[in-house]
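>> received
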Amino acid sequence: MPARTARPASRFGSMPTRAERMRFPVSCMLTVCCAAAALAGCGQGSSPNALTAPIQVVRTSAGTVAYRELGSGPPLLLITSAGLTMDDWPPSFIDTLAAHHTVVFFDNAGVGRTSAVSAPDSLSITAMASQTSALISALRLRRPAVLGWSMGGMIAQDLAVSHPAQVSRLILAATAAGTGKARPIPQPTVTEFRNPPKVVAGLFPENQAAARAYLSDILQYPGFYAESAATYHSQYLAVQRWVAGQDAAGPLVRDLRVPTLVADGTLDQFIGTANDRLLASSVPGAKLLLFADAGHAFLFQDATRFIRAVETFTG
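>> returned
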């Protein structure tokens, strides 16, 4: 595999703060809770596998894509949310999945070392799905199970519609259908980015211990990088167009014939259970799994039960 690209050595050096980069939704959490997370013991109690796996860069037909790969077993591809990088997948979450899967997680278009696929104002869910398809081909993953969180779940749906031979199973976490019937998603504005308690409440409602544990976990990654405000804004627009049904693949989820699991927390203030139920009813044969008293980051808040469900679903 290509060699790892050098990255900044310190997460707390002279780099700009995460809040300044408008990372949704983790930026606000890091701005408020970073010190508390450090006091809680960053770097302790987590398997080092995800932390030491090198970042690799592969050339694809849709540009370069930066990714990490670890574990053994059937391939599992993780697609992350708007505003996030691969460093926002908790190491403990990755390591647990990697016990039974070859896990690949990567940066979306225009983030880190991954090439942009369009001008910022014209970025689409479909374009990001096409780049993800190119990554699958370049890494010869054949037909991985695909887990998409939030915007990543929209990319996963488009991937399954447009490239069905590349998806064996589909896990859609805290995401929405692109049929044009979903309720609008209240993505944070610039003003809301400056109100961290509100965003934290949406991610981990009624469970700030889970928020602190998540932060403590991701802050163990050595060094950091983040997307620009312009890239976040382009992702914001792409999500809104998807939800409005403006991507051709969105309404075609009704034709999917891939086993699909839809999952979310019952207290997700960004997606909402109405959108979860709509998505599950839009995909033929989809199973719906809701986690009580959990929010948008339910998959980390209730990681043990969610990972168990993923293992059962992927067989």
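>> The CA atoms of residues 160 and 275 lie 19 Å apart.
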